[in-house]
Amino acid sequence: MGTDKLLVALAGQPNCGKSTLFNALTGARQHVANYPGVTVDKMVGWYRYGDTRVEVVDLPGTYSLTSYSPEERVSRDFIIHDKPSVAINVMDASNIKRCLYLTFQLLEMEIPVVLNLNMMDVAKNRGIIIDQAALSWQLGIPVVATTMNRGQGKKDLLAAIQAVADTKKSQSPVRVDYKEMESYLRDVQELLISEPNLVDTYPLRWMAIKLMEGDETIQTLIRKKASRHEQILTKIEILRDQFEAAFDEKTEMYVAQCRYAAAEGVSRPCLTRAAKSGIARPAIGIRDRTRFA
Ligand SMILES: Nc1nc2c(ncn2[C@@H]2O[C@H](COP(=O)(O)OP(=O)(O)OP(=O)(O)O)[C@@H](O)[C@H]2O)c(=O)[nH]1
Ligand SMILES: [Mg+2]
Description:
This protein has helices at about 20-25, 70-80, 95-110, 120-125, 130-140, 155-165, 180-190, 195-200, 205-215, 215-225, 230-245, 250-265, and strands spanning about 5-10, 30-35, 40-50, 50-60, 85-90, 115-120, 130, 145, 270-275, 280. By secondary structure, the protein is α/β, with parallel strands linked by helices. The protein has a seven-stranded mixed beta sheet with strand order 2-3-4-1-5-6-8, sandwiched between helices. A hairpin with a 6-residue loop joins strand 2 (about 30-35) and strand 3 (about 40-50). Guanosine-5'-triphosphate binds next to helix 1 and helix 4.
């Protein structure tokens, strides 16, 4: 049984083909709207899939989902507040490792994600062979390959969106291992857990990571929503200071390094570069099926 209405967000790096996909999905059924308080255009459209009307929002291109630029803020706020049924993470298939940085952040927001490997023609021309099943298994989410400027793979993508929306079961996607910071993240989550306004609304682990990074937007959110906000934020500041003193590293740098390590770990067993002789060889390491993290 299809759901009657779905909200789908297209997220991905600049220039990876989001708007090409948006146009392929929605055709002429689209308009420009506004995000509150910023000049970034909000592209909204819709399509019908069986009995389901699917609203699509083409988010601005971003490499990350921090609050440093209006594009990142807009994308992040949309996902966290509008809670789309599915996020399509559009990715340049010739550049997977770099793009996974954003994927991990989408997954931390506990939103169902379909990974769309677009630009498969470019990847193929560069001799990059992607083991899609391995990538899907490593990440714990569906992966669909497309060359969207030629419409290739669109049917599979439509079916994957619907399947994820229909399943409703919570996925068990991969988690970045923040190693030495994990115990600090648990402490932050303990502080947040007694605040019903937060717990019922936002993913706890995501908030904990953001707060350890020192994200000011999330600090403001805590001030607005948590009754014991001063106490919570003071304790988090102490935890941040303790971490930085113990590991001689800025917390946001440490978080970024863990994400890059996770991207390396996930992508390595899935990528092969075709040798000039035509015999495939591993792109950046030995192929194995050990799931990362
Ligand atoms: N070779 C190839 N080109 C593609 C594919 N999909 C899209 N393109 C082209 O890539 C360019 C960028 O596509 P867009 O759809 O504008 O990318 P975008 O992600 O919306 O870009 P921003 O809005 O700037 O973030 C366009 O010239 C597209 O025609 C593909 O699968 N293969
Ligand atoms: Mg675009």
